[in-house]
Amino acid sequence: MSPAPRSKRPNLRVERQLQRDGHRVLAGMDEVGRGALAGPVTVGVVVIDETCRSAPPGVRDSKLLQPHAREAMVPRIERWALCHAVGHASAEEIDQVGIIAALRLAGLRALAQCGVRPDLVILDGNHDWLTAPEDVGLLAFAHADTVETPPVTTMVKADLKCSSVAAASVLAKVTRDRIMVELGAADGEHAVYDWVGNKGYAAPEHLDALRLHGPSVWHRRSWRLPGVMHDDGVVTDLTSVGER
Hints:
This protein is α/β, with parallel strands linked by helices. The protein has eight helices and five strands; from the N terminus they run H-E-E-H-E-H-H-E-E-H-H-H-H. A five-stranded mixed beta sheet has the order 3-2-1-4-5.
């Protein structure tokens, strides 16, 4: 019986082609926490240019790495990248502006921290959540001098194909997990939600705690949380929501 094929790992082929096409400074960007019930949504960015050689061995989409492997990867990524940063949008901001605008806030904050404007941003997925609606198409010409975001290209499964995006996902995941572990510490008031284990996602013990104790200040209260009665009399159950 022949051995199972090894999973393909991210590399810089896409990035190098984009650089040959004239986009010398590239930013890989990825988000975590989009589907969580509590805590921030977090965006990581890793900027590279032609001087950045092959990514550190083992860089992969954060979901495919064990927690200790992700933690160990962070300093290697930071040494490899031209610059790197992580930005957040809080649960309160998500409630105020919605998840897509909150993703944009977190992404712009990450870019601002990085201090380098890339020629192109590579986003995982097929939706450009970074570019504001008014910066798209003909509308962008009305205020061309004030457009905040650099050009964006989207790619399905970019976190599995592009080293820069995979590295960004690791930075975002490690940073957000640390926040949720601190918020859910065993000696703290939010320990009942078990964020140390579930990181704010819809795990059974988290849902049970919401039904019993109700939402905390760190929950996304606009999200029709399970166990919370709404005006229409419906009690939402999000047991099918997975981690991202």
